[in-house]
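User: If you would, consider this record:
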Amino acid sequence: MSLRRLNAIAIKEFIEFGRDRLSVALAFGLPVFLLVIIGYAATFDVDHLRMAVCDMSCTDESRQLIAFFEQSEYFIPVYYTGSYAEVVHLIDCGKARVGMIIEPGYSENLHSGKSAQVHFLIDGQDPVIAKTALSTCQVLAIARSVQINYDRLGKTISSGIGPFGAAYVDLRPQLLYNPEGKSSNLFIPGLIGLILQNILTMLTSFAMLRETERGNFEQLLITPVKPLEMVLGKLIPYLFIGMGEYLLVLLVGVYWFEAKMVGDMVTMFVMCFFFILGSVGLGLLVSTIAKTQLQAIEIVVCILLPSLVLSGFVFPRDAQPGWISFMGSALPVTYFIEINRGIMVKGIGYAELVREIAILAAQSLVIVLLATLRLRKQF
């Protein structure tokens, strides 16, 4: 073996690696980027849960209970409603994770030394959040009961009044949507979104790059085909393929893994159209950036890893810092997972998912537009 030839080959590889900007970025930039976002996003420490409150007592005691829960920093009252149904609706829409309903006789029961009922609704579609919220609310109810009786005991001793009954907050928690706490109800809807995104993105990008590598793309340049016609012609077949894939993985998830299916499947197919459109459009966009199929795989992997962490598939987005959550909001799969879980686990429909559908549709159209504009430059 010649050390001279070996040294020449090694130097050549270093030079070729340095000329490939994408490889340099993946080798040195991607690890740091992933470490930062995963380091912040990979947490199950849930706090600051959005809480909807229905205070039918409207007394100092009920307001003190709400403030007590807020001071714990686990529950933040962001919505105040006038009925039980409105609290459920806010949880359906995902605007609130938990709901507190204080009964009208709450204050009178405390003063008379009786149990004061408080209903506490918890969104159970995410078992991690549900278990944390359940244990925390029960501890806070006990702590508030002890505090109330301690204050009453001090007043009794100072005033010389005789014995009294022990008052306590009778908190009655209820898990909504997924009371059995099955993890499949959380992961299967999210896994469907990740599978569709990555398979369709790779299929579409590979199809375009194959034509480029075989020289077919150059032949299209001399034809009257316009960029928009090219994009739509590539999109339509993969839209049908994507819908077929969605049906396949959905049936496997429901019947094989026994994931919950409460909503209407027709509604799910209508809503998943925009996500499939965006995934196919993303594949076209990748094909305009990558020069080879290997580079396309590298780009898809760069999209997959943040999607696993930031979309709420594994780690609850409620536990993520604000800027990490903002990055997750830029991913179409984030909203598709929310839509899929909402329909499958909660059984909600268009009215409760207007915001998610609108954002998902806008993102998908923007991706297709960017792919069209980049393709136009190549014509």
About this structure: The first strand starts at residue 49 and ends at 55.
